[in-house]
Amino acid sequence: MTTMYVCPADGTRAPVESLAWCCPVCRGPWDLDFEASPVPLKSLSSRVNSLWRYEEALPLSAPVTTLGEGRTPLVPLTSSVSAKLDFLMPTLSFKDRGAVMLAELARRLGPERVIADSSGNAGTAIAAYCARAGLPCTVYLPESTSPKKTEQIRAHGARLERVPGDREATARAARAAAGEPGTFYASHVHNPYFLHGTKTYVYELWEDLGGRLPETIVVPVGNGTLLLGAALAIAELSAHGLIDGRPALIAVQTEAVSPLATAFRAGAEELRAPAESAPTLAEGIAIPNPPRARQILRAVRASGGTFRTVTEDQLRAAQLDLASRGLFVESTAVACWAAVRDEGDGTSGADETDRAGLSVVVPLCGAGAKTGLAPAAGAGGQSAQ
């Protein structure tokens, strides 16, 4: 069966070769009409040590653009909570999982240019993989993006377009350029190939835990690409009879920017109104109007999960706590640990071989080198991006 884009809202379809970045009817994001095959757990040990080992579950194969992404370690924080170290990726964030899929697709389609928009990490990942693929790339960024991230993007040879205003203004500027002829819009929000990359996060958990998943998977949510990828993988593994039960998805936002948490608590199926942009240390999830809001809310509810919000002080404390354990990650990446760390038994360094009791996994999805240590309260905070 030919893989095609399909709109989850109205069923409109389009070939992936068309460079159509959104549904032409409702302007919403695409899903992918693709049926994954079962991944044979017992044969994985002999395969390439990257996310491409799950070839049966991926809509692309035999990549040229790979940088060895994936297969990040799972380490214990307490006897019941483990962290998956997705900051140990080629560009130091989990966004490499989806970016390699978009760059590989773009390489095969041969556009004149690739554009992306980002608060930093997705743009860095797209820039790096476009460099690997030999594709010209332009990244749209908010003016407030941290200098370390913009420097990383420039280092990969991408052109920068700095946009006044917040993350939403940046997205609008990129979408205005996305319709130009010969343009591939490498949107980590609108293009479902990105979600089929992020779903490998859960396939790795499944493999590392010997064919099972933890009771709870906690994810930071802005545009929801990791959460929706996780939900996709869980659905595939369940449909193929490869897991006994489905884990609950716990979505984490900041109190400063929490439109999805607000809608979830109100019992709404979609956002009633975009949130106000507000300064937050967790720049990567400060998204006031995520295009896939309806899908995110549905996925969390279907899993039996919930939303949690964290304060700026909790983010600061969690970053320092992780650093004291040897893990220096950016302030967005500590949000999940901030949401659950008070629930553990405080035991650090649980037995690596004792996986039977593992109940919660949190992602550490961006390196601290990207933003530095969060400033102390009252010392001049970072602005949302």
Describe this structure in words.
The protein is an alpha/beta fold. Helices cover 30% and strands 15% of the residues. It contains eleven helices and 13 strands. The protein has a six-stranded mixed beta sheet. Strand 7, helix 3 and strand 8 form a beta-alpha-beta unit. Helix 2 packs parallel to helix 3 (147-155), helix 5 (192-198) crosses helix 7 (225-239) and helix 6 packs across helix 7 (225-239). The model is unreliable at 346-357 and 381-385 (pLDDT under 50).
In short:
With 385 residues, the chain is α/β, with parallel strands linked by helices.
Blueprint (SSEs and pairs):
Blueprint: E1 4-6, E2 13-15, E3 31-33, E4 74-76, E5 81-84, H1 96-109, E6 113-117, H2 121-133, E7 137-142, H3 147-155, E8 159-163, H4 167-178, E9 183-185, H5 192-198, H6 200-208, E10 216-220, H7 225-239, E11 248-254, H8 259-265, H9 293-303, E12 306-310, H10 312-324, H11 335-340, E13 360-363
Parallel strand pairs: 5-13, 6-7, 6-9, 7-8, 10-11, 10-13, 11-12
Antiparallel strand pairs: 1-2, 1-3, 4-5
Helix pairs in contact: 1-2, 1-5, 2-3, 5-7, 6-7
